[in-house]
TrEMBL record:
Belongs to the anti-sigma-factor antagonist family. It comes from the Bacteria. InterPro entries: Anti-sigma_ant, STAS_dom, STAS_dom_sf. It holds the Pfam family STAS. This is Anti-sigma factor antagonist. Residues 1-107 form the STAS domain. It comes from Anabaena subtropica FACHB-260.
Length: 108
């Protein structure tokens, strides 16, 4: 597999204080030859609107650079936030990393 896949694991509460870390991760990815980014939210307990904003910004920034961003393992709170804001239509969300690997890596 020649396409680079980078997994970003988020954990705990993602809010204004630490969504900056997510932005820095994305900037780092832009400077690499990564083509697919998977944000694994398995250990995320809560996400607020600033975290969602950071994800949307990351999605747009990466897409402009030809890199795809996917999410997996989101909990109920995050899923509801995504549904309320219509972001579940923007992001491709997988149940877990295994599903992502089967769907995405098999097709690339």
């Amino acid at each position: 597999m020649n396409q680079q896949v980078q997994v970003i694991k988020l954990s705990g509460i993602i809010n204004t204080a630490n969504s900056q870390e997510l932005r820095e991760n994305i900037t780092h990815i832009l400077n690499s030859d990564t083509k697919i980014v998977l944000v694994d939210c398995q250990d995320v307990t809560f996400m607020d609107s600033s975290a969602l904003g950071a994800l949307v910004l990351a999605f747009k920034t990466l897409r402009a650079a030809g890199t795809k961003l996917f999410l997996c393992s989101i909990n109920e709170q995050v899923r509801i936030l995504f549904e309320l804001t219509g972001m579940d239509k923007v992001f491709e969300i997988f149940n877990n990393q295994d599903e992502f690997n089967q769907m995405i890596l098999a097709n690339h």
